[in-house]
Amino acid sequence: MPYYSDELVEEVRSRNDIVDVIGGYVRLQKKGSTYFGLCPFHNEKTGSFSVSPNKQMYYCFGCGAGGNVFTFLMQYENFTFGEAMQTLADRVGIELPKQEMSEAQKREADHRTRLLEINKEAAKYFYTLLRNPRGAKALEYFKKRELSDETMQKFGLGYSDQYSDDLYRYLRKKGYDDAILKESGLVTIDEARGGRDKFWNRAMFPIMDVHNRVIGFGGRVMGEGEPKYLNSPETKIFDKSRNLYGLNIARSTRKSQLLLCEGYMDVISLHQAGFDNAVASLGTALTSGHASLLKRYTKEVYLTYDSDGAGVKAALRAIPILKEVGIITKVINMRPYKDPDEFIKALGAEEYQKRIDEAENSFLFEIRIMQESYDMNDPESKTAFYNEIAKKLLGFTEELERNNYIEAVADKYQIGYDNLRKLVNNLAMKTGGITQRPAPLKSGIHENKKKEDGMKQSQKLLLTWLIEDTRLFGTVKDLITPEDFTEPLYRKVATTLFEQYAATKAVNPAQIISMFEDEEEQKEVAGLFNQTIHEVETKLEMEKAVKETIIRVKKNSIDYHSKQLDPTDMNGLMKVVSDKKALEQLENLHISID
Questions:
Q1: pLDDT tens for residues 155-202?
Q2: CATH number of the structural domain spanning residue 189
C-alpha cells in the first residue's frame, strides 16, 4: 500500500465532505443534524444508515457498517486504500506525491493490477481465438444468434480453446507464475496434472466493471457438456454481487431507465437492437449490492426476465430488493416469447419498445401473479385472495400512496374501493398496522439481536458521549482515564481521543478511523462513536446517566486491573486502593455538565 503522511491523509479526508460523497451513492434525507438513508450494504425497509457531517462518519444501526469517507469507498467500490485516496484527492484537486515504495510494498500494491492484467491478456487471447480457425464453432454459434461483427467487437466476445491447458500455457509464457494464475480464477493448479484452464471449449463473454476493466468471464459450452454456462469464481477484483454485465456501456445511456435482464445474450441482443440501457446480474440472483449499484445510475428499473416460471420467481425476488433502495420498478411482458433475445428476433425493436411503454407496475404484477394461486370462482378462495391483497397494501406506509394503490387494485379486481379500504383498515387494527422500529431504551442503548456484553456497551456509550458533547471531558478527566477502557481497541481509541482534546479542545473521530487498516476494526471503531443516545429530557437526567455510566466503567476497570495485578507490584496495589477510594467518593458526588 502506498505510504502517505498522516497530515496528507487528513487533508484529503477533511476536504471531502462525507455527506457530499455518500450523497452521490445513497439518497439521503436530513433529520436534525444527521442524514439518513437506506443502507447500501444490506437489505432494509427503514433507513437506518446515518451520515454525520459533524463526525464526518457514516454508521448503519442495522448491519453495523461504518467508517469515514475512505472506508466508504473501500467498502462500496471495493477499492484499496490507495485507490480511495487517489479518487478523493482527484475529486478536490489535490495532487498526491509519487510514491517511493520498497519491493515488498510494490508487490502488494501491484497485486490487483497484476490480476487485472491477467484478465486483460486472457480477454485478448479469447478474442483472437474466436477469429482464428480454431474458434469456428463459437463464431458459428454467435452468427446463429444473429450477432453482427460490430456487436461481437463491442462486447469483446471470444472463444476458449478445446485444449484444457491452452490459456494456462499462454499466460505462463507471458511471465505469470502459478500462484497469481491460481488467484485469478482462470486456472486451477493440480500437483499431478499441473495447470488446467477454468474455461475451455466455450464461447466467452468478458465481464467488465464500470471503468471498462476486465474483471471476470462467463462462458457457454460448445456442444455437449456441463455446466452449460460457467462464470469466473469471485476474486480480489471480481465480486458478483457488486457488478452488472453491460453496465460499463449502459451507464452512459440517455434513456431514463435501465433494463434488467437475466443473461448475457439478452443484454447483447438488446444493445444490438438499440437498447443501450440493458444490464444483467452475473449468474446470481439480484442482491442489495446490485440494487445499490443500479441506484447510482437510474431511478427506474424495468425487469425483462424470462417469462417462464423461473423468470417470474426471479422478478418476485428482485422487486422488494429494488424497492428498498428507492428504485421504481416495472415488469415487461414478453409473452409469448421466453426472453428479450427471442422477442427481438421475432418481432423487432419497435414492438419491444411498445412492451417497455406498456410495462406493468411491479406491485400490480405481484398481485396478478398471486391471484394465480386462488380460485376466483370459489367464494372462500376469493375472500382469502382479497385478505392477502390487504396484507400487501399495509406495506405502503404513506396514506396517499396506499389509497392510490387501493383504488387501482379495487378497480382491477372488482372489489370496490370502500370495501377494500375497510378491509385494509380492519386488518391494520387487528395486526397493529405498520410495524415501527423499537424505540431506544432509557439507557440510550438499543437492544441488539445479539446482546453485547453490558460493560462493552457502557464503554462504547461513554466514548459516544465524549464526541457528542466535548464538555464532558471537563467532567470526566479527573474520574476516568484511557486505562479504564479495558478492551484494547477501546483503550487505543480513548487514548487518541483524550490526546486530541488535550491538544485542541476538540475531537476528530473520522481521523481516528484512519489509524486502523483492518476493515473490521474500522467498522468497530465507527460503532464506538455511534451508540444510540436517548434524548434525555432534562440536564439532571443527563448528569445522572453520565454518572451511572462512569461508575460502571470505573468499577469494571478496578476489577479488571485487580485480576491482572502481580502480588509483588506494590505501586499497582496502591493504585487499586486509591481507585477504590475515588470510586466511593464518586458514588456520593454530584456530576455537573456545564
A1: 999 999 998 899 999 999 999 999 999 999 999 988 777 889 999 999
A2: 3.90.980.10
Pairwise CA distance, residues 362 & 368, whole Å = 10
| Domain region containing 398 | 373-431
pLDDT tens-digit series, residues 262-280 = 999 999 999 999 999 999 9
Does 197 lie in the same domain as 296? Answer: no
Same domain flag for 159 and 174: yes
DSSP letter for 240, please.
Answer: G
Query: Same structural domain for residues 497 and 583?
Result: yes
pLDDT at 325: 84
**Please, which residues have CB within 8 angstroms of residue 255's CB and are 6 or more apart in sequence?**
275, 276, 277
pTM over 0.85: no
| 101-110 pLDDT per residue, tens | 566 656 666 7
Rg (CA), the chain: 29
Q: How many CB atoms lie within 10 A of CB 454?
A: 12
Q: Which residues contact 293 (CB under 8 A, 6 or more apart)?
A: 242, 243, 244, 247
* In a domain? residue 76: yes
Give DSSP secondary structure letters for 437-504: PPPPPTTS-PPPSSPPPHHHHHHHHHHHHHHH-THHHHHHTTT--GGG--SHHHHHHHHHHHHHHHHH
Instruction: Tell whether 17 and 142 lie within a shared domain.
Output: no
User: Amino acid identity of 61?
Assistant: F
- CATH number of residue 345's parent domain: 3.40.1360.10
pLDDT, tens only, 99-140: 665 666 566 667 888 999 999 999 999 999 999 999 999 999
437 within some domain:
no
- Identify how many contiguous H helices and E strands the chain contains and give both numbers: 26, 16
Whether residues 258 and 206 fall in one domain: no
Q: Are 2 and 101 in contact (CB under 8 A)?
A: yes
Do both 412 and 458 map to the same domain?
no
122 and 180 both lie in a single domain: yes
Backbone angles phi, psi at 104, to 5 degrees: -65, -45
d(CA 514, CA 573): 37
